[in-house]
């Protein structure tokens, strides 16, 4: 799949004589990162792996196509790209690849193409050579919370002649902190779980719901609350994937316990397939089972009934600077068969990455979405304070990658009637502008807000989350026992399961899967949501934003009404 021209050019250019050093110009820089301390220059002989992302042929054209095929009113709606079509937009020009390879050859550096379109090269060199190559000083930075260290710099340069040919070199300026996972809220025995289920019924949105769902959320609660069908999907081509990071492992024995307790109508042997990259794995010792991984798998297998589900384990051997977030997308783009829905319950604060890295990551989501995959991310659990709760902030901290307009960010609700969960992260990106599909919604919300929170957020930024779902007191099985868990990481696999089941209905009638969701959700799809109008998401010593009529940066468009959303999708 990688164009042979890059390998041929490399062989030719490696033989060239090295010219004098080129004039260098600053490519990117950043301020001192929050939560890290510089412990000194990295050892000169330490080898580091860097990636060089070359300029693309026509990313603006790809963006136009990505929106066009995702907009229900377009004649091209649902006509997702093939990989070959995608490559034509993303690949570097011949001049760009030749210029970059010549530069590397001058410095006696060999490179490997690592991206499907041939736009990204990987090099492994000593720190001393990296310092010379990029006119910088790489240092060792220590995370104040975890004590883990990374090698980074605060600025780097490239030859002035290559500024039109290289988008970024990474990891250089990224300071992503270790991923946080949901916390236990309590533990209880299996016997108590069963007793919870045997309670009276209440009425919610015209549907009968067990009263126990006010205290404990299970797959059947979600089915009752949102009208999600329990009948299994029928389409072999349908698929849903769960992304796993931070050595979180999904345990099959715990899944069996979970299904036996909460989905007795399906086989307890129902399981998931495994994919790995960057040294990922999925050991099955119960003591190694991950809270996040178990949650995500149990609420996809347990809600997206009959849909082929995979767990993608991304290991620690990544060099993309974002814990494998970019690697997993390139991995999926390069797969012959990709999942139609990708659910990710991890994230970080937007300020942890520089503009160039955030743009590169967002462009990768645009590519995968254009191929027909719906990408969903948890919005975070810190209210307006970011991915995790905190008060040491004077302005609101948007999370990433929720600010990228080419993915769907999922917030959380709780209770009956549903209100915004106070931990549901939401707000406005400081990097990405408001996309056209939500411009009217953002303008309305900001206008109604008036002077509230003035100066604490970017009123012209991309607003998030886009949608929401229950996220409080989810019951999971971990090491054979039952636990409660809270977080937008509960809401995300639940909403992903809704999309997977809608895709199943679309495929059954010969239609395309939904793919990049947002232009649909904010147009014809908005009729498929329960509007949430109460609750707020405090943080940064403020009450945050408040849920309101229409879209808001706490619960987005609202929670799903399955039948209405199915009808809006034309299935």
UniProtKB/TrEMBL annotation:
Keyword tags: Calcium, Hydrolase, Metal-binding, Protease, Serine protease, Signal, Zymogen
One Pfam family this sequence matches: Peptidase_S8
Record: residues binding Ca(2+): 531-532, 550, 552
Domain Peptidase S53: 216-571
Catalysed reactions, semicolon-separated: Release of an N-terminal tripeptide from a polypeptide
Principal location listed in the UniProt entry: secreted
GO molecular function: metal ion binding; serine-type endopeptidase activity; tripeptidyl-peptidase activity
Entries under CDD domains matching the protein: Peptidases_S53, Pro-peptidase_S53
Domain of life, per lineage: Eukaryota
InterPro entries listed in its UniProt record: Peptidase_S8/S53_dom, Peptidase_S8/S53_dom_sf, S53_propep, Sedolisin_dom, Tripeptidyl-peptidase_I
Cofactor(s) listed: Ca(2+)
Cofactor: record remark: Binds 1 Ca(2+) ion per subunit.
Catalytic machinery residues: 292 (charge relay system), 296 (charge relay system), 489 (charge relay system)
Intracellular or extracellular location(s): Secreted, Extracellular space
Top enzyme category: hydrolase
Gene Ontology biological-process annotations: proteolysis
Signal peptide interval: 1-17
Function: Secreted tripeptidyl-peptidase which degrades proteins at acidic pHs and is involved in virulence.
Protein name: tripeptidyl-peptidase II
Organism per entry: Mycena chlorophos
């Amino acid at each position: 799949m990688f164009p042979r021209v890059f390998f041929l050019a490399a062989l030719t250019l490696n033989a060239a004589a090295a010219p004098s050093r080129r004039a260098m110009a600053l490519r990117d820089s950043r301020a001192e990162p929050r939560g890290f301390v510089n412990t000194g220059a990295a050892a000169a002989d330490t080898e580091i792996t860097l990636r060089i992302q070359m300029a693309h042929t026509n990313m603006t054209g790809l963006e136009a196509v990505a929106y066009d095929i995702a907009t229900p009113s377009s004649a091209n709606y649902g006509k997702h790209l093939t990989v070959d079509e995608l490559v034509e937009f993303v690949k570097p020009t011949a001049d760009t690849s030749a210029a970059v390879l010549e530069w590397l050859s001058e410095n006696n550096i060999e490179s490997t193409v690592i991206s499907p379109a041939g736009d990204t090269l990987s090099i492994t060199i000593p720190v001393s050579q990296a310092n010379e190559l990029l006119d910088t000083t790489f240092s060792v930075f220590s995370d104040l919370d975890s004590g883990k260290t990374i090698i980074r710099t605060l600025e780097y340069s490239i030859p002035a002649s290559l500024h039109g040919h290289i988008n970024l070199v990474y990891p250089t300026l990224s300071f992503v902190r270790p991923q946080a996972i949901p916390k236990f809220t309590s533990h209880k025995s299996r016997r108590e779980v069963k007793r919870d289920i045997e309670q009276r019924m209440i009425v919610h949105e015209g549907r009968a719901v067990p009263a126990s769902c006010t205290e404990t959320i299970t797959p059947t609660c979600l089915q009752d609350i949102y009208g999600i069908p329990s009948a299994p999907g029928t389409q072999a081509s349908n698929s849903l994937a769960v992304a796993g990071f931070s050595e979180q492992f999904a345990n099959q024995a715990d899944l069996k316990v979970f299904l036996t307790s909460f989905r007795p109508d399906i086989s307890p042997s129902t399981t998931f397939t495994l994919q790995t990259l960057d040294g990922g794995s999925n050991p099955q010792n119960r003591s190694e089972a991950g809270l996040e991984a178990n949650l995500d798998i149990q609420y996809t297998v347990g809600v997206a009934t009959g849909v082929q589900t995979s767990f993608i384990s991304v290991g620690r051997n990544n060099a993309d600077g974002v814990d494998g977030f970019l690697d997993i997308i390139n991995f999926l783009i390069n797969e012959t068969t990709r999942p139609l829905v990708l659910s990710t319950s991890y994230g970080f604060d937007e300020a942890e990455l520089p503009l160039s890295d955030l743009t590169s990551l967002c462009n990768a989501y645009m590519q995968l979405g254009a191929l027909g995959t719906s990408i969903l991310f948890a919005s975070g659990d810190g209210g307006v304070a970011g991915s995790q709760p905190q008060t040491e902030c004077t302005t609101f901290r948007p999370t990433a990658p929720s600010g990228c307009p080419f993915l769907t960010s999922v917030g959380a609700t709780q209770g009956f009637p549903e209100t915004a969960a106070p931990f549901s992260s939401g707000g406005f990106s400081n990097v990405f502008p408001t996309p056209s599909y939500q411009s009217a919604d953002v303008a309305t919300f900001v206008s109604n807000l008036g002077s509230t929170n003035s100066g604490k957020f970017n009123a012209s930024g991309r607003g998030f989350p886009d949608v929401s779902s229950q996220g409080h007191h989810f019951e999971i099985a971990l090491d054979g026992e039952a636990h409660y868990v809270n977080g937008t990481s509960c809401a995300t696999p639940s909403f992903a399961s809704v999309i997977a089941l809608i895709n199943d209905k679309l495929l059954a009638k010969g239609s395309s899967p939904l793919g990049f969701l947002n232009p649909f959700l904010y147009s014809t799809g908005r009729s498929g949501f329960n509007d949430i109008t109460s609750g707020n998401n405090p943080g940064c010593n403020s009450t945050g934003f408040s849920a309101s009529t229409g879209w808001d940066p706490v619960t987005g468009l609202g929670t799903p009404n399955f039948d209405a959303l199915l009808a809006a999708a034309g299935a």
